[in-house]
Structure formats: C-alpha cells, structure tokens
Amino acid sequence: MRKPLIAANWKMNKTIAETQAFLDAFLPVVADVSDVEVIIAPPFTSLTAAAEKMKSSPAKLSAQNVFHEEKGAFTGEVSAAMLIDAGCEAVIIGHSERRHILKETDEAINKKIKAARAHGLEVIFCVGELLAEREAGKTNEVLRTQITAGLAGIPAEGIVVAYEPVWAIGTGKTASPETAQEAHAFIRSLLAEKYGNAAQQLRILYGGSVTPENIAGLMACPDIDGALVGGASLKPESFMQLVQFKR
Ligand code: 13P
Question: Would residue 184 show up in a list of annotated catalytic residues for this protein?
C-alpha cells in the first residue's frame, strides 16, 4: 500500500512571519490525519521557524534544494547536514525551475540525491518534459534520461518521484488524469526496470497546476500517489482542501 503524500512547494514565497501564520492556521487541520502524509517545503530562511511550529505535528518539513558537498568554500550553498540541523526530514531535488532557470544537470542532481540520502533525508526527485519535448513525441525519452541519470547508483529507499510536466507548472494547464497516469505508469515501469518489485512501493507524485478542484480526478488514477503543489499550497484554506481530497 502506498500512502498518499501531499506536498507543498512554496518556492520563493513567504517571510518567516508569513510561514508562522500559515502553520498556525494549517497545522491543527492535520494534527490527527494519519491516512495522508503531508510535507511542507518553505524557503531556507523559514526552515527553523517552521521546524519549531511543526515539532509535534505529523507533517514533515522539507527544503527545496541542497548542495552535494559537506561543507567548505561554496558560497550561497546549503549542505544536507545543515538541512537536518534546521529540522528538515526531506528535500526536493531536481525541480524544473532549478533544471531550467538555474541550469542544474542530471549529474548535479544525482550528486545531490546521494548527499541527501547519505544524511537520511527523504528525497522528492522531480522529473518532467518541456512542452516542445512533448510535442516532438519525446516525453518518454526525456523521462528515461532524467530517471536513469538522476537515480544512478541510488537505492530505492527514501525516494519519492514527482512527475511535473513543465508545461503544466504555474500555467493553469493541468495534465488530464489520463495524460498524467500514462506518464506515471511509464515512470513506474522505469523504476521497475531498476528496482524490481520495490517499484510498487515507491510513490510517484503529480505536480503542475494541482487545485482543490482537480485533485480528486488525479488521485483516482492507479499510479498517482500524491501531489506536489505550488500555487495552491500557499493559502492554508486551499492546502487544507488538497490534503482532505478524499473527504
Ligand atoms: P503549481 O502548482 O503552481 O503549478 O507548481 C507546481 C510545482 O512546480 C510544484 O513543485
């Protein structure tokens, strides 16, 4: 059984005070939720304040990025040990904004995943094709490259994959449940090639314009195990609705 996972990726949004206000409103709602796992990924500057608020909550704290080195002369970077120190249990790696705006390569992403796993952080590993790649019929090829290179040398344990088609992120153009399911099934087949039966236990999240209105249709698909949510996770009311998608 794969437990549904709903994760909030706040991206570069929210001050410390805004983070605290969100959590004051949101955390009581998930205080006794046990059938859905919840992860919240604020920006680095809000992590310690969020950790303090989330101390006795079942919701887990995640960072949005990590650097692969342990420490040293890497100005502006943050290590996995520092994320643990700040109270994180998870980290998002390989988000499309980091791949395409910050030019992160599959090789860099692979190193980050190794570092995060070495420190016991759960990894939300993001993959997804550009619109031009989908239109050229290259979706599966792109997914195969990203998964093969990103997960090279990495065991299945502690990995969550997030399928985020780039054309669906922040555009309001959600993938239809059929389109998303097709990609998720393909990703699971790639994971099965690599990990065998363990692929059945791995969660694959969908991300890209998920809202309280469309989440139920997506979650009804057999290979969609949760959602990675940007815009609709920024307001406690809408994130609450997303977490309660079953009710
Ligand atoms: P939106 O939900 O705003 O489309 O963002 C999706 C995303 O990138 C989550 O990581």
Answer: no
Per residue in 161-182, pLDDT (tens digit) is 999 999 999 999 999 999 999 9
Cβ < 6 A, ligand 1 pocket: 9, 95, 164, 169-170, 207-210, 228-232
3-state SS class at 182: helix
Domain extent at residue 196: 5-243
- Nearest by Cα to 26 from 222, 207, 234, 195: 234
Q: How far is the CA of 9 from the centre of ligand 1 (A)?
A: 7
Map residue 235 onto helix, strand or coil.
Answer: coil
Which CATH number covers residue 131?
3.20.20.70
Measured CA to CA in angstroms, residue 63 lies from 43, 52, 89, 138 at distances of 7, 15, 8, 30
Q: Tell me how many domains the chain contains.
A: 1
Q: Look at the block and give the residue holding tokens 């985020």.
A: 164
pTM (2 d.p.)? 0.98
User: Which DSSP string do the residues of 94-156 spell out, in sequence order?
Assistant: S-HHHHHTS---HHHHHHHHHHHHHTT-EEEEEE---HHHHHTT-HHHHHHHHHHHHTTT--S
* Catalytic choice (95, 104, 133, 184): 95
Give the tens place of pLDDT for each residue, 62-119: 999 999 999 999 999 999 999 999 999 999 999 999 999 999 999 999 999 999 999 9
Give, using CA atoms, the residue closest to atom 7 of ligand 1. 230
